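Quick one:
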Amino acid sequence: MNNLSHKTRYCCSGLLALTLAACGDGHSVATTPATPPPPTPVVTYQFEIEVTNLTQAQPISPVAAVLQTSGRLWTVGQPASVALERLAEAGDNSAILGDSQVTAKASLSGMLLPGTSAKMTIETTEMVNYLSVLGMPVNTNDAFSGLTGFDLRTLAVNSARIFDTPVYDAGTEGNSESAASVPGPAAGGEGFNSQRDDVNQVRMHSGVVSQQDGLSSSALLEAHRFDNPMLKIRIMRTK
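Output:
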């Protein structure tokens, strides 16, 4: 009985040694690496903006289109920002385009002449933005036209919205219409001036008086007058 138990233990020990030797012979067992999940695709939202100048003789400064994290670039009854003042007095949209709240931007390369249209495209990967589009009628002291705070999330792909936009007065410069103060081709006067000598709040523009209507010091003619609206803006979501 003892001999049998000894043999049994010997056999078991031998089997265990063989098993350990087989497992520890330096050969690894091949494993299939886990497949990483595919990267999340980046979604691009794209919008085509077409702007039409509805005036008779008011070239519009290079129109800017910006997407912002907050809703509005201006509010009627509130002071204009310096960026808006620069655009409304000199047609300079660089401060608007460079604002810290802007997440995407586009600009026409030149002035939009009376009766003409131009298109630009703007893109974003975050569908949480508001759109503003604006430009200056350059034969004025501090007028501008456009829209602000349009929520792009309201547009489906291949749908469009059309806006006829009014003329605003930035309220930063008196409407003298003088040759020294109107920067456009009708006068060639000064553009931006940091001094504010008007009501210092955005309002609806009362229009141009002109020489023909009795303002003898005006550099503007009857053709430079305007009535609302000034711009037609068509916004189409293409992606």
